[in-house]
Amino acid sequence: MDRIDFRSDTVSWPTPAMRRAMADAPVGDDVYGEDPTVNKLEALAAEMVGKEAGLFVASGTMGNLTAILAHGRRGDGAIVGEDSHTFRAEAGGMAVLGGIVPNPLPTDVYGRMNLAAVEDAVFPDDPHFPTNRLILVENSYGAKGGYPIEPAYFQQIRQIANKNNLIVHMDGARLFNAAVALNLDTKEITQYVDSVTFCLSKGLCAPVGSVLCGPAEFIQQARRARKLVGGAMRQAGVMAAAGIVALTEMVERLADDHAHAKLLAEGLAEIPGIVVQPELVKTNMLFFELADSAPVTPEQFVQCLRDEANIWLSGGYSRRFRAVTHYWIQESDVALFLKTARAILQ
Ligand code: TLP
Prior knowledge:
By secondary structure, this protein is an alpha/beta fold. Helices cover 42% and strands 17% of the residues. It contains 14 helices and twelve strands. It has helices at residues 16-24, 36-48, 60-71, 85-88, 93-96, 115-120, 151-164, 175-182, 186-190, 216-228, 237-249, 254-269, 298-309, 331-345; strands at residues 4-5, 53-57, 76-81, 101-105, 131-138, 167-172, 195-199, 210-214, 274-276, 285-290, 311-312, 320-324. A seven-stranded mixed β-sheet has the order 2-8-7-6-5-3-4, sandwiched between helices. Strand 9 and strand 10 form a beta hairpin. The site of ligand TLP has 13 residues, from helix 3.
């Protein structure tokens, strides 16, 4: 990459192996179900998360939206973390396009909703209320620094769902980061949810795409929902080919990104003027704050990193920053970040 970009793992470029696979991919019209590369990706994805079928979609947002549209109807309710991506950062799609009524609940420092609060959020069977339908969960939890939530939590969510006849959908945009950090087979996490979306284009480096996985009948419904939102693609095998490389070659190495994020957090903790909790850093993301005592404003901090070392960091509007590591960030880049930040803040 031409810059050292900590703004997100979404900025990651495809690897050389991906570009080769894309050039060589056999393709067909996926709306006819005839793209062999898309079919291969969908089968592989479903197998990896222990579900019957998969659906290749353009983005994580589209995966969550098509899942919600396929699971619910207008007037249905969805219990959801108030700082989850699906509630807060997907343009209100579930309400705007699905007529789904979100019922947002606070989450703890790891991104978990309180289980008693989840039970309380189930409405009585009364025409005043939305119809109880969905619980939406997320793993790893982006707004809580990409914290990987243990399967035990989802097991308890499953029990509440079963008791109340609810469907559980997981936004697993960074599901494989969570599984690698917890040292678990991904299926140990996804066994408790009915459907899951995960992204190929974040830490896994594919240029485009996510996969929604779930029961075969549900995926048929989701295929219709994807068409509805204009997301049915034609020779998408060109992109799916990169996704296959992502799933076969890029999962285990996520551990390197996690180690880099930890290294960055531990280094930042030693710099006066920065407040960070390295113990919360388990995957490829960290939040840190610029203390009031820092000699520069947040805007100046971002600008100086860019001017002095071509290091890109998002934010600058508040004292809180997010840094994300990925394949294109090396240990030497972390060292440069720390050296430059120390110089700016001295
Ligand atoms: N997250 C992006 C921004 O939208 C914040 C990022 O840079 O992290 N779920 C989660 C947990 C996500 O973090 C994201 C993207 C999505 C869903 C949506 O994925 P895309 O961008 O592919 O629609």
